[in-house]
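ERR on first pass: missing label on line 2. Operator R.T. fixed the label and resubmitted. Corrected input:
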Amino acid sequence: MKEAKQPVVSFRNVSYQVGGQVVLEDLSFEVFAGEIYGVMGMSGVGKSTLLRLMMGLIKPSKGEVAIKGTVINSLPERELNRVRLKMGMCFQGAALFDALTVAENVAFGLRRMRPRLAEEEIRRRVAAHLAEVGMEGSEDKMPAELSGGMRKRVGIARALIMEPELMLYDEPTAGLDPIMAAVILDLIRSLRDKFGMTSVVVTHEVDRLFAIADRVMMIHAGRLIAEGTPEQLRCCAVEEVKQFVEGLTAGPIAV
Ligand SMILES: Nc1ncnc2c1ncn2[C@@H]1O[C@H](COP(=O)(O)OP(=O)(O)O)[C@@H](O)[C@H]1O
Ligand SMILES: [Mg+2]
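pass 2 clean. output:
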């Protein structure tokens, strides 16, 4: 019988160790289609590492990572790239190419993966995706001319143009003023509402995460210590979760 609800992302007993340090230990969770799934925890706890495992950029020391039912741990690079096409990543610092214009940045993946696409069509899609993130008309700007929030939005447009089913956001609101943070969170939510996009949002900013996430997990000392809806985590009895949610242990500002 076909599984009714196949997870988009599935971690099964995943551990990650580097240079003798256990970064993540025995993590198991699933993210379902159309969900906004949050990952919270203090700086340095392994949140970015978790996203890198999800993209197959690094391999777990133990356990399995599966994307839409395909275990990606041991996939050859070419097949891994095919799975990666389903995923868009918004990196912590936007990671734009500084020497390329906004339009060239946004078109980058499209040109590489769809070399036969007409120039006119590329231009049309770039414009449409810049509009989607509220950055219409910024094609000819250079990244250095943009604010942090604008760079993040261009980074999101660059990922969206590949039409991913799953978007991964690493600290999408860190360092942004409240208005810009709200713009980015609205965007994440509207992508879900309009296209049923699945999103994993990693952040140390609890309030902002709780405002948009369907479910949230918390990582502490390498382990998943709680998972549930924002309401459930607000009432969670686990001491570390309580402290984190109440902001008592506000970690160092993530960079
Ligand atoms: N390639 C690596 N080499 C050495 N240490 C690493 C590597 N990747 C991650 N780490 C360590 O893993 C921990 C978690 O890092 P990270 O995932 O960036 O945390 P977060 O995103 O939650 O701030 C840190 O202690 C970091 O030093
Ligand atoms: Mg990080």
